[in-house]
Amino acid sequence: MAVPPVRVFPLALASALAVTVAGPVLLPTAWAQQSPASGALARQSFVAEAVRRAGPAVVTIDTERTVVVPGQGGLQQLPFMDPLLRQFFGLPRGGQAPMPPSQRTERGQGSGLIYDPTGLLITNAHVVEKSSRVVVGLPDGRRVEGKVVGSDPVTDLAVVRLEGGGPWPVARLGNSDALQVGDWVIAVGNPFGLDNTVTLGIVSSLNRNAAKLGITDKRLELIQTDAAINPGNSGGPLLDAGGEVVGINTLVRSGPGAGLGFAIPINRARTIAQQLVATGLVSHAMIGVGLEPARDASGATAAGAQVRSVMPGGPAARAGLKPGDVITASAGQVVKSPAQLTQLVERNGVGNPMALVVQRGGQAVTLQVTPVELSSLVPR
Q: What is the pTM of this model?
């Protein structure tokens, strides 16, 4: 029997997805404290304490954008079919009067997180994309205008500045590099417009490459979790057991295996936010190659990144890389996969030469390549 296709959606845009309800959760005995007087389990869990710390900084983002709908011909015909009447009213020949373009307002909603006391919040780029107006709702009832400081579609992150004098509640950012598979995590946001929704789960996997989810236009290594994440959670925080932010919720999986959520590690988000605040833009290094997993003689996946294509005139072409080459090391570090090589190029930065060890025809060849800015290679 054929298996239905699996789709991954940005949370703010996937309005037709079903709600995922998390099942019962057994808490560690360390958190299931007993009341000295009655011996009963304590009413408050570590989840309540974590949400108490971060919850005031989790906001709702309402957006508006104006969409121009092009005019269509063939809608105005009668009584202007008579050529004499068309000439009298100055209508074009052909029996059809073109309709003028019209405008409509589209509204969207997502979540965000205030991370700086000056009124800076972080969210997903797709939440505020092409927005003409951004209104931010705080848990304390305040609603304030927001201005997009910068947006990076490559990592799906954006920074918004709140307009007004504050004071603003702030969530504490944690260290996503310290996460381990099996750690407790808490998703907070506004799915389907339901403010301050909290769900609990664990870290199911780390460094989940977006390309494996069919998302080829993003550069992301994601945290995978089974905490229930739904449309409207986009931009909201993923908390650890101590209430510190370890991720920014961004994707949900639909179809077979539904209930899997994905978040951008906060260490990555923090770096992107700093660049957006400083310049409004984010630098992404690129060498101009298409990559695929390397394979051994039997066809099984092997370590390395095989060059599928080389962009003419790009850094890789100038360095001498060819389709079929297998890149096995970069700057002394073993390359295990295409995703890892992409990370190494990004960390190396624009304009800094890097050495690539390439297997070609059974021989190892070392090439020097200098990455350039991604935007300079992407066709406009």
A: 0.72
